[in-house]
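Late entry, evening session. Most of the bench is empty. Finally got around to the prediction I had been postponing all week. Sequence below, unchanged from the version circulated by S.P.
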Amino acid sequence: MKLKIFIYLFLPLFLLSLCSSEKERQKNNTLEKKRDFKTLKAEFPFQGRIIFQSDLDGDDEIYLLTKLQLKKLTDNTWDDTYPRWSPDGTRIAFAANPKGHFNIFTMNEDGSGQSQLTDLPGDETEPAWLPDGKEIAFTREAKRLIGKDYSLWKMNLETKETSELIPEFGGEAGLADFSPVDSFMLFTGKKMFGWDVFVHDFQKKESRSLTEGGKSCRAYFSADGKKIVFVSSKADGRGDVWIMNPDGTDKIRLTERDETYDYFPAWSPDGKYIVFCSGRQNTHRKGPWSLSLVKVSTKSIIPLFSSSGRDLFPHWH
C-alpha cells in the first residue's frame, strides 16, 4: 500500500522533472545555437564571399561568409543545400525540399527573391550554372528497384525547358561543373563499380575518364580553366583534396591528413587557395564538419570557419 501511495504521489513529479529537464536542455541548445550564430566569424581574412550550407540552427540553411561577418540567407523549417554562385555573382542556385523531395531554386545574393525552378516528384540536387548564366544543370535522382539512378539535366531559365545533358553516357552521372573557357564539362560518373572524374567534350559529344580506380569525385575547374580540383580516397582510404591539369595529367595531393576526411573543395577566384570541408566521420551526415583553406603553392592548411554544426558544400566568389 505504501509503495502504491509513493508511486501515485511522486511518479508524476518525477516525470514532470524529466520533461522540465528535457525542455531546459532544448532551451539551452537553442540559446547556444543563437549565441554561436551571433559570435561566429571567419578565422582567416580571405577576400571575396563564400556561401555554404550548415545545420547549426537545427536544419540545413544557406549562409554567406565574408571576412567580416556571417549572414544567414535562408531561414525555414526544411533543408536548403548545395549553394552555387552564378557566374556574375548576383544569383545563387540551391536545392531545397519544402515538399519532402528536393527541387532546384534560385535567389538573389542577399537571400531575397527565392524562386522554385523544378517541380518533379523525384530529387533534383547539386545545381551548377552554365557559363552564360542562362541555364542551370543539376543532378536528377530516380529510384529504381535497388538503389538510385543518377543523371545530369539542365534547365533554360527563360523557357523553363529541361533536357538531359549527356544521354549518350553509358552510366550514372552527377555533380556537373563547366569550363569557363572551353566547351567542357566535368562530372562524377560511374560505368561499373566506383565513381571517377570524367570530362565531357560537347563539340565531340564524347566523355572520358580523368581518374581511374573508382575512388575520385567532385571535380571543379579553376576560374581560368587551367586546373581542376577534385577529391580522391586512393591515398589514405578516406578522402583528400587533389589538383590536376584539364587533361588529367600532373595529379598533386594537397591535403595529407590521414585522420580526417577532406571533401567538397572549391577554388578561390584567384586560384591561390581552395576551400574545403573536414570531418572525422566517414559521412558528412554525422559529426561536426568545418571549413578550411589549403594554399595551393605550399599545401599549408588554414582553419577558416567552424560552428557547432556540419558546415558543408562551400562555393567561393
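Two things to note before I forget:
The helical segments are 2-39.
The longest strand covers residues 135-143.
Will write this up properly tomorrow.
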